[in-house]
Structure formats: C-alpha cells, structure tokens
Amino acid sequence: MAPKSSTLQDVARVAGVSTATVSRTLSNPNVVSESTRTRVSEAVKTTGYRINRAARNLRTQRAHSVLVLLPDLANPFFSEILEGISRELSHRGYSMLIASTKQVHDSGERLLDYLDDARADGMIILDGGLDPDVVSMLENARQTKRILFACEWVEGADFPTVRCENRQGAREAVNHLYSLGHRKIAHVTGPEGNVLMHTRKDAFVAQISELGLELKPEWIIAGDFSISAGCAAAQAWIAMEDRSTAVFCASDQLAMAFIAELSRHGFRVPEDVSVMGFDDIDFAEQFIPALTSIRQDRLLIGETAANMLMGRIESPNTGGDEPIAIIPVSLVVRESTAAPG
Amino acid sequence: MAPKSSTLQDVARVAGVSTATVSRTLSNPNVVSESTRTRVSEAVKTTGYRINRAARNLRTQRAHSVLVLLPDLANPFFSEILEGISRELSHRGYSMLIASTKQVHDSGERLLDYLDDARADGMIILDGGLDPDVVSMLENARQTKRILFACEWVEGADFPTVRCENRQGAREAVNHLYSLGHRKIAHVTGPEGNVLMHTRKDAFVAQISELGLELKPEWIIAGDFSISAGCAAAQAWIAMEDRSTAVFCASDQLAMAFIAELSRHGFRVPEDVSVMGFDDIDFAEQFIPALTSIRQDRLLIGETAANMLMGRIESPNTGGDEPIAIIPVSLVVRESTAAPG
DNA sequence: CTGAAAGCGCTTACAG
DNA sequence: CTGAAAGCGCTTACAG
Prior knowledge:
The structure is a homodimer of 341-residue chains. Chain A has helices at 8-15, 19-27, 34-47, 53-60, 79-91, 101-106, 113-116, 132-140, 166-179, 195-210, 227-238, 252-264, 298-314; strands spanning 65-70, 95-100, 122-125, 147-150, 161-164, 185-188, 220-221, 246-249, 274-276, 293-296, 324-327, 329-332. With 341 residues, the first copy, chain A, is an alpha/beta fold. In chain A, the strands form three sheets. A six-stranded parallel sheet of chain A has the order 2-1-3-4-5-11. In chain A, strands 7-6-8-9 form a four-stranded parallel sheet.
C-alpha cells in the first residue's frame, strides 16, 4: 500500500510545534513569528503535506464548493458561462460542482440537499424552467441567501439574478433591421413559458410599435428551442400571405434551423430574406451565411454570478442588496442580414 | 438565524436509540430490527435530517466525488460526455467536480491536489495534451488507480482509457467516399501532436493505400482545431494543382470551416467537392449542407468512463485489468458527400 | 506568539 | 440486534 499522505500532526511533529501553530501558519501566516513560519514551511515541504479538505470543511462548516445547475448538460450553450463561473470560483479557492435539473430529478435527490448535506455552500441556477414546487421549496429554505439565478430567472420569485439585457437586445435587433430598410419584420419566438423568450418577444413588439411599423399576426411565429421548430417556422414563413422581408429569431439555434430549412426550399439568405438570431453562440460565425446576432457576454455573466454569490456567502449580513446584475449585449452584424432585395 | 439543521444526534434522541443505530439504519437497514427501523425512519422524517457529507467523507476517507478535467471549459464538444459521466456518477451517489487544464494551471494548483486533499476520489481526464511534467507526476502518484483518460489519451503513459474507434472511423470515411466513386481523396489533419488526429491520419493513409488509391502529398493538408485552419485548408484545396474530388476532415469543426470558406469562394459542396467530418457534433445536422460524419457516441463514452473509474475506486484490488475500452463509431451520411460531379 | 483541548458530525470495530 | 467509545484531520476560542 502506498504511504498515507501526511497530516497536520506530522507537520507539527517535524516542525516541533503544535498543530494549532501549523494551522495558523497555513491560514493566517502573519500571526506567527517568522522563525516559526520558516520552520513550519520546511516541515510542510519535507512531509509533502496537503490539507485534508474534508476535515477542514467539517470543522469550518463550509464546503468550499458551489453547485451549478444546468437545465441540460448536453446543451453547449452553457459552456462559456461555466468557464466564467469556474474562473471566479477557483480564484477564491472554491470548487465547482455540476448537475442538471433532469438528473437531479431523476435520481430522486432534492436540489436543496446539496446545501443541506454540506456538499455546496451555494448554488447558481441556470434554469428558469424549474418546477414550481422546487422553486417554492427553494424560497422556503433556510438557505435563501445562497441561491442565485443566472441567464434565466423565475418570474415572481425574488432570488438575486444575473442576466443580460434581453429587452435592449431585442430592440437593437429590430433597429438594425429597420436601419437596413426593412419595414416588414417577423419574429420567431422561443418556447412558450420561457422567461427569456417572453422578454425578447415583448421587447420586439414594443420596438416595432415604437417605430410605427405594421405587425401582422402571422409575423409572430411560435417556436421553441428545438431544431424542428426552426424548420416549422421556415415553412410558416414560406406560407405567409404577406411575407416579411426580415426575421428576428429568439435564438441563434432557431435562426440556423430556420435558414437551413429555407435553403432546402430554394430560398437564399439574405437575398430573399434577412435573418438574425440572439446569443451569438460560437457557431454563429461559422454558419453559412455567417449569422448576424445579439451577443451575450457569457463569460462575464458567469464571472458576475460567481462573484455575487461569493459575496453573499462570505458576508451574508453585509446588507448588500444588489439582487440583480444586468450584463450588456451588443449587436454583431454578419452576412445573414442585408437591405431588402 | 435559521434553525441549524439536525444531526444524527437529534435523530437518535428523538428515536430513543444510539447514533450508531441511526447510522446503521441509514446505511445498512437490514442489520437492524424492523421496529427500530420504523422508529428511526419516523425520527428522520420529523427532524428533517440530512446527512452531513463533510462528516461522512472525513470519517470514511472518501470524497464521494470525481473530478472531470477538460482541456477547455468553453469547448462545447464535451457537453454530452459530461452528461454521460454525470448520469453514471449520480446513480452511484457521487458528485461531479469540473475543472479545466488551463485553469488548474493558472490558479497554481496541482492537479493531484484534488486527490491528495480529499476533494475527489478519482479523476477522468479528457485532455491528452497535458504537459509531460504533469503526466509524469500523475504516473508517480500514489493514486494511479484513480486516474482514467477518456476520448484522448497520452501516448506512452499507461493509464486506463476509454476512447472511440478512431482508426475504424477514418477507414469508414475513406470507404464511404470510395464507394461514392471518389478516387482522389484528400485529408485535412488536426493539430500536430494530438493523439486523436495522428491516429485518424494514419488510418486514413493506411486505408487509401489498401484501396490502391493514389495519394499526392498535397492531398494531406495540415490543420488544427481552429476555424482559421479550416479556412486555410480550403484555400490550400483551391490552390491544388490536381484537386481532390473529396475531402475527409479530421473533425466536424474543421469540415464546417472548410466548407464555409469554400462557399465564400464560390465553390459548392457536394457538387464541386464532397466533404466529410468526424465526431458528428450536434451542429453537423443543422449545417448547410448537413454534414456527413463519423459519429462518436459521446454519451456512451462518458458513461463507460465513469463506470470503469467507479469500478477501480470501489474495488481497487479486484485485479480487473481491463485498462482500455473502445467505443464503436458509425458513419452518418448526410448531404455534404455525393458522387463526384 | 503559542499550546492544550474541545469539537465539527459522522462510522465502525468491539463488546455484549 | 444494539450501545459506548474512539477517531477521521482539521480550526479556534481560551489561557498564558
């Protein structure tokens, strides 16, 4: 059997001090004398000591880790947000635990158990579509301060939230198309019930009316996150009595599926119709035609969320009620939009 | 302050038994009498008891969690693998910790600390491009049995590995193009030094020669994972003295960038040239033209890796030396390949 | 500046 | 089948 790794005891023995002193040297060096400090440091080196986090966690009543809850692990949309969260957490010596809503549910676990069983100090939820029962459990929990939503949120529940400027993004989309000369602009919405999609749709409608543009009912096409929804939307567009000259899709995914289906039917983008998306996922740039989109800084969303959560965890009483952070979006113009033909 | 959550002690008090009995009831129910069992269960319910994992972990010397190391968190290629790993882990009551190679490095942590400081019981490494120093640290660690590579691996180091049939995939790619009638087939390689890419390239060359096809030097185009590499490869193809009629790209990403650049120069796929990729990422289907590819079952890779690692962690002595699992691949024919024009 | 001692909340031989 | 007790490896008032 390999040698057991060494403990504080071992270091203390080698350095000729108490475990208390070793512990202090490690966590609060300037409270011990310099000579002690060097002696301990050497002992740490010779023993190859690594702190046992399970022990520290038990003693300090902190897990030093945060759970990130995704709606779906297989969805690549979240990868950059994770990168942002992880950066911020690792700066602060925290680990990142990941789970998906579906899996937590399927495995019969309760989401709150992560907090209750000392696995995580807090959680960042990237899923606004949580079951209402789950949401109310979260609201009634002892641990409300340790929960934060990012990207999506739950209408009515007031957890701190980090999100992008969805309204502003939708407005900029409309303005971009308008400035190209489009006057007949359609919108493919996201899934019914998704906060993001509602917000974007409402802002779309508002901006259209602000510009004094006509909005025929058939120009609002109901979609969802699926590829087939994008295809169906394309068929709906093709079948319109009065086709719009531009289409703003609630997500890039939707826009790409929309364009793909259109191209199968012999329509060209942007020659026959301008199409744009929302999110600016990695792939938008590689798509043919390269997709005009509204960029969300997903890295920044992640960092901000982690930062905010850490603040609340580490000083829960500091009144700091900045329960919402809004991350700006920006228009990225590429090849899928042009002046109407 | 919210009430502290209850402990084993509380449950024991309420049930009128010792903490030992409560513990047994929870972890090994059939060793206690039925009446005790019901009493304890009720006490658990009334107290709302949740086990404290930090305490359990300290006592059992298990973290009940596994670290998954990605080369890059922002790369969506891995999401489905994570889903597979996470499924298997949560079945077994383990949590999934995530970190990226770059971040571990930047934060000055050592990879082995995750094992040494009791944060994780094992790790699944999805990065074959680890620094050789790091690899040799891993090899010399006490914890070799707790480390496993998936998807990628390190040539020369013999850690257990889960990978897909890269050779077979490349051969099927060649055969597919051959059977369509192509006799002049080029290959865009991945980054120099990546095991996956080498394996695929070698198999490509082998199969070409097995079929007795000519292979001009200019038909091997050096690429990497970047989008710009795909574009450069397209320019190389355009500039060829004797253009191949088909191109097998070492990844889907590469294939899409290749096609995108080609289309900017007025070439059409598959009319002017057939192009296929490798991986079958989610996006392959939505791309225009929908991409012919070699499908890796990333879910299965993830599940298999987790499964194998759990086996090694939970019974380290059971000789079980199946240090390598190969996951089959399959050809997915879509629109980007056709008979030569 | 340092040490002795208690204790975080579990699990598990050991004894009965 | 059950309990008393030790102990996992830390941290932190408390006292000096």
